[in-house]
Amino acid sequence: MAEPKKCAHTACTCVCSDGKKYCSQICEDSKSMMSIKCDCKHEGCSGR
Ligand SMILES: [Zn+2]
Ligand SMILES: [Zn+2]
User: Fold this and answer.
1) Is residue 3 part of a domain?
2) Which listed site, 1, 17, 33, 43, has its alpha carbon 20 to 30 Å from 27?
3) For the chain, what is the domain count?
4) Ligand 2 centroid vs 48 CA: distance in angstroms?
5) What is the pLDDT of residue 17?
6) Ligand 2 is a single-atom ion; what residues have CB below 5 A from it?
7) 20 CA distance to ligand 1 middle (Å)
8) Ligand 2 centroid to 3 CA: how many Å?
């Protein structure tokens, strides 16, 4: 059973499914930029 995990992006509050580390490609791409806001635009994400 995979437990829901928070997106590995610091500012992102989304929960990932499927055992992924990031909720979206956007989060994965921005991890190297030390972004303090999340731009995934998911509903419920408070990282922006
Ligand atoms: Zn997000
Ligand atoms: Zn995310």
Assistant:
1) yes
2) 1
3) 1
4) 11
5) 77
6) 7, 9, 12, 14, 23, 27, 40
7) 14
8) 16
2 within some domain: yes
Token pair recorded at residue 17: 């499914």
pLDDT value at residue 40: 92
Which pTM was predicted? 0.74
Residue-number span of the structural domain to which 26 is assigned: 1-31
For 1-48, how does the pLDDT look when each residue is reduced to its tens digit (9 = 90+)?
Answer: 557 789 999 899 999 877 889 999 999 998 777 668 898 999 989 877
d(CA 2, CA 38): 24
Q: How far is the CA of 24 from the centre of ligand 2 (A)?
A: 6
How many angstroms does the Cα of residue 2 sit away from the middle of ligand 2? Answer: 17
Q: Annotate 1-48 with DSSP letters as a single string.
A: -PPPEE-SSTT---EE-TT-SSSSHHHHHHGGGT-SS-----TT----
